[in-house]
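Issue 218. Parser rejects a valid record. Input:
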Amino acid sequence: MEAFNVLTGIAAPLPAANVDTDVIMPKQFLKGIDRNGLDRGVFFDLRFLADGSPDPAFILNQPEWQNAKFLLVGPNFGCGSSREHAVWGLKQLGIRALIGTTFAGIFFDNCQRNGVLTVQLDPKPWAQIAQEVVHGDKNKITLDLPAQQIGLQNGEVIDFAIDELSKVSLLNGLDAIGTTLQYRDDIREFQQGHLQRNPWLA
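Output the parser choked on:
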């Protein structure tokens, strides 16, 4: 999993509420047997017109917000079905962090497990960021995970909270398995001791 430390990039505003996982990754992109090509499916019905060409009205197709690394999303982002493909696609598209007020629970967990940082803010600081990034000449932010801060181009700095386990995992690029394997020696010692005390289990 790719580590997250300090990253500067474009933030694109997607403020609509209750954007569900079928909007993020429509069902027709769930047929593959691997994760390849899921970036094409992200926001497919919003990004593309009926003829398959990019919709110029969609924010990620506009020159000022192309190649965005961050999305400023509306409340309850990622609701709906639990499809992990939505997170895989966002990651393939180059999205490293989502900044919102609330996220759907399973989607939030899927992001953490796949190296996409989810930042939850109160509405007031969220609005501060929104007021800036809606302008194409002010839409770069710096997301500093070690310091737990978001820096805006106007010099404002916004603090955010994150649980320690998620922070450490993201900083070190560790998924759930990688985090567990940090304790491999303790696990092996427990296994050996447990079998010695209960030899019939072998």
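Fixed in the parser; the record now loads. The chain has eight helices and seven strands.
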